[in-house]
Amino acid sequence: MTPSRLGPDQLAQLFVQAGGSQKYARLMANLAQRESGGRPTINNRGTNRNGTVDWGLWQINDIWRKDPVVGPLFRSGAILTPEGNARAAVHILKVQGPKAWATYQPGTDAKYLGGFNGATAASSTTTPTPRAPAPAPAAPATDNRAARGQLVNQFLNQHGSDPLDFAMGIRALQDTPGAASTPAPRAAPSGQASFTTPPTESGAVNFEGKQVAAWIAPALAYARKHGWRGTVTSGYRTFADQTRIYNSGVRPAAKPGTSNHEGTQFPRGAVDVSDAQTLARILQNSPYGQRLKWAGAKDPVHFSHPHNGSY
Ligand SMILES: [Zn+2]
């Protein structure tokens, strides 16, 4: 019988037994906890706008149904078993690397690589609560420890809370490094809109085909799940994008170099959407209400985190 939730050691062992390398075992266990809270049978139906669904422990996206290794695991239903999902994860890791998971963070996740020997004394084999990702090592400019703690309590105390909402909430409440340098933005990858779409180094991720700041995506995914039917009309913009928009005469538009659309590191980052009123209403009563705010009458399509007089 399959336990309702798997802990980090169980997940790491599962990954190795499915043919995964020791080197990646702890990282992959961690990713499974972020993606599914260690629950083998969950899916995120209704979250991905392109209609695809992410399945099981490692939230394997439907696009992998066409893959010669993963496809049969879908057809047999094994994708919702711990073993079958682990086999899919091992294969996807080989094909795309850990960046196949949007929750992977190359910098802070390096500490999970290497050294898994099948069992660790420090943690038990069953862990009843999903763990929040460790805070960034740099001195945080935003410290959301209290907010994360609150979210954990809320999740544990409400029977039947949605683990996906919880995971997205924790992700949105990551601490933001203060002085840490951010790699320069680079071109967006082409790819599918899904949980398994790799983030770019700039901190932009693919939300339903549009590049948006990584901290904004979970809020949009949450809103999508809770009834928002609009779309992102404009998310992350390069300097060239902003110049084009500004020169076109469209207003309101910030001068190139000053728009929050041109940043991805919280509190910078912005999205323009359709059906903004619904999004605003859903966000207000969500864990993201204090992060992502509607500009309202000033710019009725625009959402961002107002700071230093900019929005
Ligand atoms: Zn805008």
Can you describe this structure?
The chain has 311 residues and is α+β, with helices and mostly antiparallel strands. The chain has two domains: 8-112, Lysozyme (Orthogonal Bundle), CATH 1.10.530; 199-311, 2-Layer Sandwich (Muramoyl-pentapeptide Carboxypeptidase, domain 2). Helices cover 31% and strands 9% of the residues. It contains nine helices and ten strands. It has helices spanning 8-17, 22-36, 71-76, 82-96, 145-157, 163-172, 217-225, 239-248, 276-284, and strands spanning 54-55, 60-61, 140-142, 176-177, 204-207, 210-213, 232-234, 270-273, 293-294, 302-304. A four-stranded antiparallel beta sheet has the order 7-8-10-9, covered by helices on one side. The chain has a two-stranded antiparallel ribbon with strand order 1-2. Strands 3-4 form a two-stranded antiparallel sheet. Strand 9 (293-294) and strand 10 (302-304) form a beta hairpin. Helix 1 crosses helix 4 and helix 5 (145-157) packs antiparallel against helix 6 (163-172). The longest helix has 15 residues, at 22-36. The N and C termini lie far apart (52 Å). The chain binds zinc ion. Zinc ion binds at residues 261, 270, 272, 299, 302.
